[in-house]
Specification:
globular
C-alpha cells in the first residue's frame, strides 16, 4: 500500500499543472491569444521586407518548437510549406520535448526578442503573440519542474 501511495504522489507531481496561480493564468492567457489569432495572420511575417533582429529571435525560437534549425529563414519556410494551422499548433509538449540545450538556447534568445517599437505592423502583433506564448510556456515548464522536484508530503 505504501508503494502505491508513493507511486501516486510521484504521478501527481509529474503531471502537476496549476489550476490557479500567476503561471497558469499567464499561460492560459497566452494560449487564448494564440488560439484567437486569425489563421492567416502569421502570413504577415512573409511580407516583411527586412526582419529586425528582435523579430528574428522570436522566429528562431519558434523553429525550435517545431524541431527545426533556429533561423528566421527556416521560420519563413515553415510558413510557406506548412498548413497555416500547423504553424500555430504548439503546446506544452513542444516545450517538454526540447533538449536542455534547446531550452537554454530559447531562454538566451527570448529576453532580447520583440523590442521593436511596433514598426513591424501586423507582423509585430503576430510576433508579440508568439513571444508571449513562448515566455509563458517556459515559465510554466519551470514551475512544473520545480513542483516535480519537491518531496512528496
Amino acid at each position: 500500500m505504501e508503494k502505491r501511495a508513493a507511486a501516486q504522489a510521484f504521478s501527481d507531481r509529474l503531471n502537476a499543472t496549476p489550476a490557479e496561480g500567476a503561471e497558469a493564468d499567464r499561460f492560459r492567457s497566452a494560449v487564448d491569444r494564440l488560439s484567437s489569432m486569425k489563421r492567416e495572420a502569421p502570413q504577415a511575417l512573409l511580407r516583411l521586407e527586412e526582419v529586425p533582429a528582435d523579430v528574428a529571435a522570436v522566429m528562431e525560437c519558434w523553429c525550435l518548437l517545431h524541431g527545426k534549425a533556429p533561423s528566421s529563414e527556416q521560420c519563413l519556410k515553415l510558413l510557406k510549406e506548412e498548413p497555416a494551422e500547423d504553424f500555430t499548433l504548439v503546446g506544452m509538449s513542444n516545450i517538454n520535448c526540447l533538449t536542455e540545450e534547446e531550452l537554454a538556447e530559447m531562454r538566451r534568445r527570448l529576453p532580447a526578442a520583440a523590442t521593436s517599437d511596433g514598426e513591424a505592423g501586423e507582423a509585430g502583433e503576430v510576433v508579440a503573440t508568439m513571444l508571449e506564448w513562448m515566455q509563458a510556456a517556459v515559465v510554466m515548464h519551470d514551475w512544473a519542474r520545480r513542483q516535480r522536484a519537491q518531496p512528496s508530503d
